[in-house]
């Protein structure tokens, strides 16, 4: 009789997925911080748009964490 | 031509009032003093206007925020600017330096659709595909966004007082270098390679007597024009020193 490893594999996949997406979420937070620092130092016409983009990226990174939690 | 700033006029009037109160200056003399001060201010704005025209003559009128060269920008500003300091020119690397990351980004965007042709992909469960595609596009976006930020915020600034290099080398590193125009000793430029020669961009090396020995304006368009502008501003700075107009 061989033990059924399928459940363990699914669990490992889920843990990897969630940890990976959390690391990406930290990276997205760093980008938001970086864009805020840059726009504070150098002010130009497109600063507002760049800040919006960085926050959209952060929101999608948060969604990725939830998706990894639910789907995987 | 630039107009006399309202703040300067208010300040002049305040000075005159103080002189009258403190030194008991005769009203007739006040008019003379007023005229002399106005003449001085008009002369200064004439010089500034003339200088602007000469810089426009060298570099041209480029004011779009995504342009590599901005002359007398209205919107652009930076944190370390002094209150009276005037931004003459802002330079970013030439647009051609962005071509490589733009092409890579386009390929990265197209890659998931191309992967559909590989049979082994069909065996991967749908839930992994969904997460994988999302992660792929997030990383692609982050790659393109980071490269754009590097180009957009790495700026070289020439003001009426100094030259400045602001660069963000990676996510958490900011470098600010400056040198006063009067401290500039030697300016050289280098255009090398096929791309730089074809599109006329290169690096300007500014040797200074300041703490930062050299400031480099890297990959900027028309380096010869930047050198001319710096030469003009150094001459103006020397003239200001001789006339005692140094701030």
Automatic annotation (TrEMBL), chain A:
Keyword presence, Transmembrane helix: yes
Alphabetically ordered keywords of this record: Membrane, Transmembrane, Transmembrane helix
InterPro entries from the UniProt entry: DUF5657 (IPR043716)
Highest taxon of source: Bacteria
A Pfam match: DUF5657
Membrane-crossing residue ranges in chain numbering: 15-36, 48-71
Protein name from the UniProt record: Uncharacterized protein
Organism this protein belongs to: Candidatus Shapirobacteria bacterium GW2011_GWE1_38_10
């Amino acid at each position: 009789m061989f033990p059924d490893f399928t459940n363990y594999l699914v669990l490992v996949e889920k843990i990897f997925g969630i940890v990976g997406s959390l690391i990406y979420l930290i990276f997205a937070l760093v980008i938001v911080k970086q864009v805020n620092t840059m726009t504070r130092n150098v002010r130009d016409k497109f600063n507002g748009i760049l800040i919006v983009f960085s926050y959209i990226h952060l929101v999608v990174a948060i969604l990725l964490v939830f998706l990894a939690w639910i789907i995987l | 031509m630039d107009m006399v700033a309202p703040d300067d006029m208010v300040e002049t009037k305040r000075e005159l009032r103080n002189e009258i109160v403190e030194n008991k200056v005769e009203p007739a003399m006040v008019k003379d003093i007023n005229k002399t001060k106005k003449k001085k201010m008009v002369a200064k704005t004439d010089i500034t206007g003339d200088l602007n025209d000469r810089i426009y003559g060298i570099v041209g009128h480029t004011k779009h925020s995504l342009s590599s060269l901005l002359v007398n920008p209205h919107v652009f500003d930076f944190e370390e600017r002094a209150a009276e300091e005037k931004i003459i020119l802002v330079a970013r690397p030439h647009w051609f330096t962005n071509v490589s990351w733009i092409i890579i980004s386009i390929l990265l965007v197209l890659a998931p659709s191309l992967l559909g042709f590989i049979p082994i992909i069909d065996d991967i469960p749908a839930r992994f595909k969904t997460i994988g595609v999302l992660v792929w596009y997030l990383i692609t976006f982050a790659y393109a966004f980071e490269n754009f930020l590097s180009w957009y915020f790495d700026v070289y600034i020439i003001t009426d007082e100094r030259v400045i290099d602001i660069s963000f080398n990676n996510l958490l590193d900011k470098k600010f270098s400056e040198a006063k125009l009067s401290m500039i000793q030697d300016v050289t430029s280098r255009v090398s390679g096929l791309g730089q020669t074809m599109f006329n961009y290169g690096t300007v090396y500014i040797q200074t007597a300041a703490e930062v020995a050299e400031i480099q304006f890297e990959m900027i368009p028309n380096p010869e024009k930047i050198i001319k502008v710096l030469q003009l501003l150094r001459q103006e700075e020397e003239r200001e020193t001789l006339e005692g107009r140094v701030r």
